[in-house]
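Lecture 7 notes: from sequence to structure.

We start with a single chain of 227 residues. Read the sequence below before looking at the structure.
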Amino acid sequence: MRYQIVGQTVPAVELVLNKGEQFFTQSGGMFYQSEGIEMNTNARGGIGASLGRMFTGESIFMSTYTAQVDNATIAFSSTVPGCVLPINLGAAPGGIIMQKGAFLCAQNSINLKVEFTKKFSAGLFGGEGFILQRAEGNGMLFMEIDGDQVVKTLQQGEVLKISTGNLVAFEPTVRYEVETIKGLKNIFLGGEGLFLTKLTGPGKVILQTQNFPDFAGRIRPYVATGS
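Now the structure, written as tokens:
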């Protein structure tokens, strides 16, 4: 398997597969493909896993694409302006935990499952919901990032506090919590809401400069609606 990232504003990953190689994505994630690709859509992992994906923001059904010939080409595109980040999970023991909507596509050897937040407050106020996604296995995973990516490597006990919605993924060694912003003026006038996401090392953290749901909320008043 070979890949390249194509496009700049709303990029895609283009894959060149040998016969028998497989990639899967959520329903509707395919951009283009050459001849020699077979598609199979199903509830990957069973009904339980499919319902879990629904709560993480992914589609219930997944589509698996299998190369029937060598050098078959297929591309998967991101959905908003940003970038596509390749991750070699074979070099990431324990896999990686992602926010909802970050998954783009992965080799068929990757297992994608739900990951429950350990604290009720984190799930209720963290902006990512109670259920995140854990990807693990030996192979390539591609994530889509809103805006630009920022990667931080936290040392043991090092704390990073980020605005809700700007977290993309983190290694399982990182502790995930939610912290209340202190001070009434900060809460009501600061523009950051009530909570910050608190991450404690060790481990790698992947952030995104754009929070697209927040961006959509900001431009909604300027979007014309039908009468």
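The longest helix spans residues 47-55. Keep this in mind for problem set 3.
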